[in-house]
Amino acid sequence: MSRTINEEAAVMTKVMELMTALDQVKKYRAFSRLLLDFAAIVLCSVVLLLALELTVNFFKIASGFPCYYSTASMFICGSVVGGSQASPIVQLLAGLSLFLIPAIGVLVGVFWVDRKLRSVRGGEWREAMKEGFPGALRLLQALDWDSVLEDMRISKIGYAVYSVIKVLGYWLLAFIILFFPYGFGISLLHTGINFYVLGLISLILVLVLIRRDLGRRYRQVVSLDAITWELRWFNSEFKRPEFGETGTIEEH
Amino acid sequence: MISKAWVIFILVLIISGQFLVLSLFHNVDDQGVIFGNSVIVIGKWNYVSASVDLLVLPSVVNGTPSQVDIVLPNGTSFSANNPSSGFSMRIKLPMTGFSLANGAISGPVPLSQDHPLNVTIAQNVGDATTYVSSIMASNSATSFQGLAVELYPIIIHGDAQVAISGYGVAL
Amino acid sequence: MNSKDQSSERQEPSKNTDVASGGKHSEFEGKKPDLYVIARIINVLKEKGSLNRTALATSTGLAYNRLSSYLDWMIEREFVAISDEGGYVSLTQAGIEVYDDLVRWIFRYVGKLKFPRLE
């Protein structure tokens, strides 16, 4: 009898661990879906930036713009030839808009994803666990295993994609930050800026700085893999004829 | 309700289209200090429609501003001797032809499919008229399948700082 | 639920120890009764001892008629017994054993699961 009580407690502990893991998987699944939202928001900001650039280009061709002398970038204005001039702040914003608009898009995307993720709740199963072993049994019976395994598969992909996006984002940021000191340092040596070298340096720097985070995420993906295999095995056992379909519990 | 994947696909298509249209726009700019007889040459393919801004600021030599004379491609001439305001104008160079052919030329004003609009500043060329004639002669190749080069020389006599920037759309 | 019960099953068909196969009653004919409900009823009886039907229905959270169907099914398989006085429902040894079997069965497989910690 006490052995059965121990086994009951062990079943409940295991089911709690399973449901906690599935709650986490639910968040990862929601996150994977939200990556599409994130991509759409960032792409919209790129569309907006390009539309602005096209509009200014058309203005320049047709009737001029408040910048009469410009450098390679159409947004940066130099000295004026008569006519009107955009204020320095407008010129600065226009020059920075090449980075500002996509950066705002990324920030809005991150905010959107974060807000949606906060609304993903878990733990509804705790109420059922209060019933003891029957509650744990009910939770196991109620699980849609195909859906659970599908969620795990998509979570793994989403998690891996998120890691890649994070590295790319940090790489771009490092590239921009390092550009100015690198350019200044190189100009002292009277030589040209090599963007490949700068790109490589910033990539290596980013990988070094976030190596622990990358390692953690890699372990997470491996953990998800391990859980998937465990659940696949359990699902096949749970569905075996002697356990469920004919309703007979037979020991072999 | 359209799925998110289709939304992303459509956005990527829009961005691709925008990049395509953006690639039709070309800009050039050049600046420098000139003295003596100088020639600014604007070159473009005939299928390009361009707008070019020119700024000429007379230099100050020994406290005296230089007298600068500017002769436009159509023969009109202007003078400038104010170093702060100088001479400025916008020149519209319309599209005069259409061609599906692509080509490239070298020389003082190189043109290609990627750079269909170009400017060059040649300072202190000596006899400006002779220089212009030689450039026009070297680029007077007959048109090829409707593709032709158009050159617009601007002659400047005097010491000045010049800045020229142009925007063109190649259709 | 083990080979011993299967042989007794052949001699005494009424002692059908299939946990979830259909019995005489049309409620479960061709369908399986819910293992969770059976476990819940047994669990409540283990905790609280004998109860009348009404109290049992309240404790298990089941509708009275649904509880009655399950009790009829369980009586048929001698998992529970009804006293003559007051109609109190109590658990039999077979009922305790089937519950223990169920726990052991689940534990045999759930117990083998290993979950690495997810952050």
Summarize, please:
By secondary structure, chain A is an all-alpha fold. Chain A is built from seven helices and no strands. The radius of gyration of chain A is 28 Å and the shape is elongated.
Structure notes:
The complex is a heterotrimer of chains A (252), B (171) and C (119). Chain A is mostly helical. Chain A is built from seven helices and no strands. Chain A folds into two domains: 1-134, no CATH class; 144-252, no CATH class. In chain A, helix 1 (2-62) crosses helix 4. In chain A, 21% of the residues are buried. Chain B has a single domain (26-170), classed as Jelly Rolls (Sandwich). Chain B has helices at 4-22, 128-138, and strands at residues 25-34, 37-45, 48-58, 60-61, 64-65, 68-71, 77-80, 87-93, 117-122, 149-157, 160-170. Chain B starts with a helix and ends with a strand. The mean pLDDT of chain B is 86. Chain C has 119 residues and is mainly α. Chain C has a domain at 32-110: Orthogonal Bundle (Arc Repressor Mutant, subunit A). Chain C has a two-stranded antiparallel sheet. In chain C, helix 2 packs across helix 5. The chains are: A mainly alpha (252), B alpha+beta (171), C mainly alpha (119). Chains in contact: A-B, A-C. Chains A and C meet through helix 1, helix 4 and helix 7 of A and helix 2 and helix 5 of C.
CATH class membership of chain B:
Mainly Beta
Q: Strand percentage of chain B, roughly?
A: 35-45%
**Count of structural domains of chain B:** 1
Coarse shape of chain C: elongated
Secondary structural class of chain C: mainly alpha
Strand content of chain C: 5-15%
Number of DSSP helical runs of chain B: 2
Give the arrangement of secondary structure elements.
The complex is a heterotrimer of chains A (252), B (171) and C (119).
Chain A: H1 2-62, H2 88-118, H3 126-129, H4 133-142, H5 145-188, H6 195-209, H7 211-238
Chain B: H1 4-22, E1 25-34, E2 37-45, E3 48-58, E4 60-61, E5 64-65, E6 68-71, E7 77-80, E8 87-93, E9 117-122, H2 128-138, E10 149-157, E11 160-170
Antiparallel strand pairs in B: 1-11, 2-9, 2-10, 3-8, 3-11, 4-5, 6-7, 6-10
Chain C: H1 3-11, H2 35-48, H3 53-60, H4 64-76, E1 80-82, E2 89-91, H5 93-110
Antiparallel strand pairs in C: 1-2
Helix pairs in contact in C: 2-5
